[in-house]
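Input chain follows. Return structure tokens only.
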Amino acid sequence: MRPARSFEACPSSNWSHARATIQEAMVDSLTPAQRSERMSRIRSSNTKPEIYLRKALHRLGFRFRLHGRKLPGKPDIILPKHKAVVFVHGCFWHRHASCRVASVPKSNTEFWLAKFARNVERDAVVRQKLQDEGWRVFVTWECETDSPKKAELAAKELACLLLNGTTEFSVQDVSSV
């Protein structure tokens, strides 16, 4: 096992200068074309957290449809029998308030803040439209379903709420109680 590195031996002025130089160089190491290519590979459906949650719900006996194109916001999971929809939101894109993944990129900050604000606003509009149509709206977060064990816990909480007739839910709300 390798011992942890210690920077105490470095003169503090040299280390702070080196750190500032590294931060300046880390603004973006990719060209705009490379960044575009990388961003285009980010999936909007069938993500691992979504698949983990679907498998857990299926094991609990729930049957559902996927990615309802006829519903506002194309929910990830539709449970017609329970008149409920589930969104599996990515923490970064949908601004999960208590998650470290929901950071703001250092470059082009104004663009990202505006984009995130539009995403959050659109989420609220979609939620309201679905509720107006009589659907129960449930939201789970990527960080709360990013492993099979976490997804199993979220599915059990969701199952209780579905069967008890709860109208709205977010995994973060339940786990903080």
